[in-house]
Amino acid sequence: MKRLFLTVVAVALLTVAACAQDITVGVVLSLTGPGAALGIPNKNAMSLAPTTVAGHKVNYVTYDDASDPTMAVQVVKRLIAENKVDVIIGTTITPTALAVIDLVAEANTPLISLAQSASVVSPVDAKRKWVFKTPADEAVYMRSVAQHMAKHGVKTVSTIAFDDAYGEGNFAGFKAEAQRLNIKILATEKYKRTDTSALGQVLRAMQVKPDAVFILASGTPAALPHKELVERGYKGKIYQTAGVVNPDFLRVGGKDVEGAFLPASPLTVAEQLPNGYPTKAESLRFAHAYEPKFGSRQFFAALAWDAMNIVNNAIPKALATAKPGTIQFRQALRNAIENTKGYNGATAVFTFSPTDHAGVNQLGSVMARIENGGWKLVEAPSFK
């Protein structure tokens, strides 16, 4: 009887120890540098993450990659080698995300990126099988923009894009949609995130007299060519990407960015969405959690919120087959994330698959307009 009692106690202690095994989540964000306007909201949202999931304590280890691909590689190496993370959320921007793909694949560590470019997750090859992302692909947003242009008489357009993967990816997506709808691109200009002037690009874009100018940039640097277009008297329509949906862009752009059109996550205009829209409830849940602490909701914060919840939903499934801190657990997490189906997030509806690690359809993009220093819904896709 005594031996049986001791055996029961030993089993109980082992069970408690197993349940107490911590889960470690690495977080890599652009908290300084050109991407900081996006990375800081990412970090704010991550501060709302639960510290316990499925009976296990969750530890979050956060590093700043300074918006620099080289630094991103260094901190991801540290997360993998020193912190022994089970999963990574980040990075914030496309160049840093592309820089760490090889690392996470080699370490068999799943990563949910907060960067937009389809190149981060496509094609889903032996390396990208470990990488997912929460922003919609460029094609989703570019389809919304091109359709809006076609409906409102835009037949010619000039583009001014970041000279990096973000600009290139968005331009490629827009070009395909523009060709499909017979919208002619007259000029294609580029500038760097760190430039202090884009006047030359603006003058060349205006010279061909387009019906609209599309600025393919993100964060506060996207305001630079926009303000110069207005100062030079451009009277056509101006479009921005979803990458400008943050208060800092509105602050820097001021009255000059009033009237601009852009594709946006439904989160941006959640209260204006029709009842029953798939993301509306979660968008408002995020807003109610975020806004009392950090002010107005931010799309980039919600991208981190969705990544966090996708991981949290995958954890119980992974725990059913493996223990945290093991390669088996990382593999199980990856598999569980890939099998996420119809999750109504704050920014989109997510359905991943072995061939689609973006998982966002057209419901993840509405058209909005900057009006009175805020965002006004212009049109939303049908959802019934």
The coarse silhouette is globular
What's the domain count? 2
Which CATH top level class of the largest domain fits?
Alpha Beta
Going by helix content, strand content and strand pairing, the class is alpha/beta
CATH architecture of the largest domain: 3-Layer(aba) Sandwich
Q: Nearest-angstrom radius of gyration? A: 22 Å
Mean pLDDT: 93
Q: How much helix, percentage-wise, in residues?
A: 40-55%
Number of helices: 12
Uncertain regions spanning at least 5 consecutive residues: 4-19
User: Which series of helices and strands comes N to C?
Assistant: HEHEEHEHEEHEHEHEHEHEHHHEEEE
> Strand fraction band?
15-25%
Tell me what the structure shows.
This protein has 384 residues and is of the alpha/beta class. The protein folds into 2 domains: 2-136 and 282-363, Rossmann fold (3-Layer(aba) Sandwich); 139-264, Response regulator (Rossmann fold, 3-Layer(aba) Sandwich), CATH 3.40.50.2300. The chain is built from 12 helices and 15 strands. The strands form 4 sheets. A 6-stranded mixed beta sheet has the order 2-3-1-4-5-6, with helices on both faces. Strands 8-7-9-10 form a 4-stranded parallel beta sheet, sandwiched between helices. A 3-stranded antiparallel beta sheet has the order 11-14-15. Helix 3 (69-81) packs parallel to helix 4 (94-106), helix 5 (138-151) crosses helix 6 and helix 11 packs across helix 12.
